[in-house]
Amino acid sequence: MIRCIAGSVRLDTFDxxxxxxxxxxxxxxFIPAALLAGGLLLWSHPxxxxxxxxxxxxxxxxxxxxxxxxxLVKTARxxxxxxxxxxxxxxxxxTLLIGLGMVAMLGGAAALSGAVLFSLWFGLAYLPRKExxxxxxxxxxxxxxxxxxxxxxxxxxxxxxRWRPVETADASExxxxxxxxxxxxxxxxxxxxxxxxxxxxxxxxxRVLLF
Length: 211
What we know:
By secondary structure, the protein is mainly alpha-helical. It is 59% helix and 5% strand.
């Protein structure tokens, strides 16, 4: 393994990159969402103009997720470095930006309908379920450290200043400040997410070119 440390960023090469398309990504529960997305795409009339409107949101979402996943170490520690010092769920924030950007790319009535459906699903089903599950798990693992972090760092809309652990914080809280690592893309299956976003953007562009 070759490591290059520059400031707070550490780039690790992958010893072995796993297949980004993993069984959990092919779960049958995703079929209704895939069919709905396909229906919206067929109904839509995207243009290069609509892609120009939605593209920056997609890129912003990708950037947020890339920044976040390089810090994320699930279960082993309470992650509070990088974007986690500003918002508790930067990965979900990235997903929200990507989703809104993708539906904006569709243009017209399809974009409006997609934005409403996506926002309802995200706000009423996806985020509440994920928030509760993760909060319960982290509270059980880190107790008062997570309680303070949860009280002071917003779930989805970033705070204006960086959150910092108190000087007397125990090891589990202090160790949350670590460097960004490329190897965590594979560990957290972010490569699969980026592949899915790339395919979706490609399909919208193909719709513009072929129809």
